[in-house]
Design goal:
With about 80 residues, the chain is mainly α. Helices cover about 80% and strands about 5% of the residues. A two-stranded antiparallel ribbon has the order 1-2. Helix 3 packs antiparallel against helix 4. The longest helix has 23 residues. The protein is flat. The two termini are about 20 Å apart.
Length: about 80
């Protein structure tokens, strides 16, 4: 996928997140929601792979398809 798709997604996101309170809540809550989901899935094992890893694989594929830079940033976050 091209950079234009990433730009379009970011523009759509930016236009719906203009309120400073809304932005502040997202900066705190979105990472906490992600970390909570990973923590919940960490204890679930499917064969020898935990479910948190299984969640991360399609997520990383999605971000890498959008942009290598975005994928690299998400890899650091994970």
């Amino acid at each position: 996928m091209s950079t234009t798709r990433v730009q379009r997604l970011l523009t759509e996101y930016g236009s719906s997140h203009q309120n400073p309170t809304h932005k502040a809540i997202h900066w705190v809550m979105v990472p906490l929601i992600y970390l909570s989901l990973v923590a919940l899935l960490w204890g679930i094992s499917i064969a020898t792979i935990n479910a948190a890893l299984l969640l991360s694989i399609p997520m990383m594929i999605y971000y890498l398809m959008l942009s290598l830079r975005l994928g690299a940033g998400m890899l650091l976050f994970i």
